[in-house]
């Protein structure tokens, strides 16, 4: 039995507008359209929609999902196994963060003590959950170089890099109430620029660096992730990175 757009939307819990958008961009085209213009979805269409929504739950951008599903080598069973593994990892991280929240509530009430390390249990910036987005924006080459560069490090080296990353972000967060063009802010942004170029295995031009800063604000997922270090940090970094790029263009 084939379903109309409204029936699919109600069953799945998404909007009719979303299904229309998927159709318009060629991501999910209904297998049949009646003479009166009604879109009809088959069981195969619904299976594809399930795949799309699994990928969306894992923050894959629509263009990337379309590329994956159109690949002749795409294996639905293999993809489901991957979805399951990634969602279990996501659940584990969320459970840890919920536990940290519960402990923090007790801490604020004076019921328990918390070390600084315990206050950030569950936060993990060592891996980028939006790798698919990064691949789409900058291409596979830059991301593959980064992954290869990190993979070549020992466990101790990777942990040292993660600590340096964390320290830089905390430093910038402490400066976010000041001016983005201030000497201290620009010095911290210089550290961030040098860090990216040193440990990514890829050299980012000043213009790309500026665009990365803009992305911190344009993409709410990045904003949410960065602002965990302090509300407004993403906007501050955007502004400070733009100042840094403009000031240093002549010497690039």
Task: List the main descriptive attributes of the protein structure presented here.
mainly alpha, Multidrug-efflux Transporter Regulator, Chain: A, Domain 2, 3 domains, 3 strands, 68% helix, globular
What do you see in this structure?
This protein is mainly α. It has three domains: 3-70, Multidrug-efflux Transporter Regulator, Chain: A, Domain 2 (Orthogonal Bundle); 75-121; 125-251, Globin-like, CATH 1.10.490.50. The chain contains 13 helices and three strands; from the N terminus they run βααββααααααααααα. Helix 3 (43-57) packs across helix 4 (62-70). It is globular, with a radius of gyration of 22 Å. The mean pLDDT is 84.
Write the layout of secondary structure elements.
Elements: E1 3-4, H1 5-12, H2 16-24, E2 32-33, E3 39-41, H3 43-57, H4 62-70, H5 76-108, H6 116-119, H7 131-138, H8 140-151, H9 155-174, H10 183-199, H11 206-218, H12 220-226, H13 233-248
Antiparallel strand pairs: 1-3, 2-3
Helix pairs in contact: 3-4, 7-8, 9-10, 10-13, 11-12, 11-13
InterPro entries: DNA-bd_dom_put_sf, MerR-type_HTH_dom, MerR_fam, TipA-like_antibiotic-bd, TipAS_dom
Domain HTH merR-type: 2-71
Keywords: Activator, DNA-binding, Transcription, Transcription regulation
């Amino acid at each position: 039995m084939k379903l109309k757009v409204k029936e699919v939307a109600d069953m799945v819990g998404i909007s009719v507008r979303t299904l229309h958008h998927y159709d318009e961009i060629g991501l999910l085209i209904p297998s049949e359209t009646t003479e009166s213009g009604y879109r009809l979805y088959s069981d195969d269409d619904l299976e594809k929609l399930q795949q799309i929504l699994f990928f969306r739950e894992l923050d894959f951008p629509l263009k990337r999902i379309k590329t994956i599903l159109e690949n002749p080598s795409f294996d639905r069973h293999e993809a489901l196994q991957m979805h399951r593994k990634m969602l279990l990892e996501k659940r584990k991280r969320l459970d840890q963060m919920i536990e940290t929240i519960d402990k923090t509530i007790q801490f604020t009430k004076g019921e328990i003590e918390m070390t600084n390390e315990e206050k950030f249990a569950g936060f993990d910036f060592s891996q980028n959950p939006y790798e698919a987005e990064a691949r789409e924006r900058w291409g596979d080459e830059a991301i593959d170089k980064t992954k290869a560069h990190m993979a070549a490090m020992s466990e101790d080296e990777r942990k040292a890099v993660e600590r340096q990353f964390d320290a830089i972000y905390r430093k910038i967060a402490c400066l976010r109430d000041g001016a983005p063009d201030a000497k201290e802010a620009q010095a911290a942004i210089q550290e961030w620029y040098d860090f990216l170029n040193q440990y990514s295995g890829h050299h980012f031009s000043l213009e790309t660096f500026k665009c990365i800063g803009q992305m911190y604000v344009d993409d709410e997922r990045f904003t949410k992730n960065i602002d965990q270090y302090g509300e407004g940090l993403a906007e501050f970094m955007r502004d400070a990175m733009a100042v840094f790029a403009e000031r240093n263009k002549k010497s690039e």
